[in-house]
Specification:
The chain has about 230 residues and is α+β, with helices and mostly antiparallel strands. The protein has nine helices and five strands. The protein is rod-shaped, with a radius of gyration of 33 Å.
């Protein structure tokens, strides 16, 4: 009996102590919240409130503009080109973009004065027209890791270019001039020639195939000999 009274007295003393301490002191709810959650989980069969770590919280403003060079190039096409198709290899290191030649020509065209070439109202290129080419060149020259990318351009023909020479040599000459002019625009916009290849190939006529892949310098035998110790 005496032990029960002693236990009750001790309980009342502790209760009074915590009541007094709670009255004269304060605590930060944000710091106490994890502790209260732990207590709730320990003594209740109901799940407590889960706190999401700051790293897991999505910041949309931070996500915008992120991604590798290929993702940004694809986003650029989405924003500036009306119709195109893109696909990556299974490793995600190269990307093939197929786009109508006319649309690609419009995208990389830097508009002249509106007095000589007025832009059509409602045209998809009137908004920010002229930004596609410098942005593409910037992305190809180096991504966020400093890795440059190359772009291989293949202008599609109905027939094999070798056969086209015998069938319609004049048409073949015009196609060569067209693909050369497109490559020239990229070079004049600041893209080094080593990052561009241009040619003709059999495929879907009226379209141009663009292949984007990391650029790797060509190591020649002379380069290897030059690095060898003397």
């Amino acid at each position: 009996m005496a032990n029960q009274y002693l236990s009750l007295a001790l309980f009342l003393m502790l209760l009074s102590f915590f009541i007094i301490m709670n009255g004269v002191s304060g605590f930060e709810e944000t710091k106490a919240h994890p502790v209260m959650n732990s207590i709730a989980l320990a003594f209740s069969n109901k799940p407590g409130n889960e706190d999401r770590a700051p790293d897991d919280q999505i910041n949309k403003d931070f996500v915008i503009g992120e991604g590798d060079a290929l993702s940004q190039i694809e986003g650029l096409f989405n924003a500036e080109v009306i119709a195109f198709e893109s696909v990556r290899n299974r490793f995600g290191t190269t990307m093939h973009v197929q786009v109508p030649v006319l649309e690609f020509e419009r995208a990389i065209d830097v508009p002249r004065s509106s007095s000589t070439q007025p832009l059509e109202q409602g045209n998809a290129y009137t908004k920010g027209r002229g930004a596609f080419l410098p942005t593409l060149v910037s992305l190809l020259k180096a991504d966020k890791r400093g890795m440059p990318y190359r772009m291989d351009m293949i202008l599609a023909l109905d027939n094999n270019p070798a056969d086209e020479t015998a069938i319609t040599p004049k048409l073949l000459e015009e196609k060569v001039e067209k693909i050369g002019a497109l490559a020239g625009k990229l070079e004049r916009a600041g893209l080094p020639q080593k990052f561009i290849t241009a040619g003709l190939g059999q495929g879907k006529s009226g379209f141009i195939d663009l292949y984007f892949s990391p650029w790797e310098p060509i190591v020649t035998e002379n380069d290897i000999k030059g690095e060898a110790p003397q």
